[in-house]
Structure to design on (215 residues):
């Protein structure tokens, strides 16, 4: 049998993903003290997304696509790309991606790597989400608002960093920004699919649970 990687760089059927439900999960520990006060501690530094794509299956063709995809991934064995229907851009879903959407850091004339992030909220309370699977052909990068040619940088999928080539390194004080579309790395959160036919040329899979992974 051929050796397979733990991440397959393919996207879950987009039409089915568009009808999915789900969103981010946070894990917090909350202890109630005898005084009535609470002590709260975050167990996850990054949120983790869960989806159920069963609601996106609308036809027999959709059902077949999901079955084939499930078999090719060996069930929950291999992770893959999933297009989150609610959050898939560096900007708002109804806006156009711009190279100035998200701030990645400030140059010092030496630093060549900047983590690709998306920021939620403002100021000190803002949450920075690491983006591991951008759609590279949509990724644009700018320094102080001026877009940098893609020949001057690349994206490292192993680390999730935008990497600048010699000669394109942001100068001291330069503000690096980026814009992009992205997918969520997920795997099936089940070992089996329950399939049924509801009518001629129509079928359903009541639940297709997916969970975000590090990839």
């Amino acid at each position: 049998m051929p050796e397979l990687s733990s991440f397959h760089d393919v996207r879950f059927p987009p039409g089915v993903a568009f009808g999915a439900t789900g969103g981010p999960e946070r894990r917090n520990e909350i202890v109630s003290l005898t005084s009535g006060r609470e002590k709260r501690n975050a167990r996850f530094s990054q949120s983790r997304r869960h989806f159920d794509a069963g609601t996106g299956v609308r036809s027999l063709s959709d059902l077949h696509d999901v079955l084939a995809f499930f078999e090719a991934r060996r069930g929950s064995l291999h992770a893959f790309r999933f297009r989150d229907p609610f959050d898939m851009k560096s900007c708002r879903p109804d806006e156009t991606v711009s190279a100035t959407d998200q701030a990645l850091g400030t140059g010092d004339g030496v630093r060549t790597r900047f983590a690709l992030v998306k920021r939620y909220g403002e100021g000190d309370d803002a949450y920075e989400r690491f983006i591991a699977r951008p759609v590279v052909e949509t990724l644009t990068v700018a320094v102080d608002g001026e877009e940098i040619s893609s020949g001057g940088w690349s994206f490292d999928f192993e680390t999730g960093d935008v990497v600048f080539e010699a000669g394109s390194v942001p100068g001291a004080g330069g503000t690096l920004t980026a814009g992009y579309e992205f997918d969520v790395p997920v795997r099936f959160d089940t070992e089996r699919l329950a399939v049924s036919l509801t009518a001629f040329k129509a079928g359903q899979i009541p639940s297709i649970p997916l969970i975000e992974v590090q990839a």
